[in-house]
Amino acid sequence: MSPFEYIYRNLRQFFGWVSNTKVFGVVPLDNILHFLIGLFLYGTFRKKLGPLRAFSLVLLIALLKEVFDWLGPRFLIGEALKDVAFTIAMPAILVIIYLIKKKNS
Hints:
Layout: H1 3-20, E1 22-23, E2 27-28, H2 29-49, H3 51-70, H4 77-104
Antiparallel strand pairs: 1-2
Helix pairs in contact: 2-3, 2-4, 3-4
């Protein structure tokens, strides 16, 4: 087995564990992590790129992650849409607030 196959297999196992784990038996860990990572990436990129470009970059990263998942054997379009929605939810709200404040000032 090549090192890339080994890494790929381990990443698949880890992401499988994350998607099957529920916090307090209710909230999927996958959803929480998508939300937090999207917020972290947006906050990191916003300082250098501005709100709109930061949002675009977070959206691009979320879509590329789902393309990576699409290559796997258990790809579900509904799951991919949910993951993208959780990743960009808070950045989208922050961009809307930014646009409203910009319009009103």
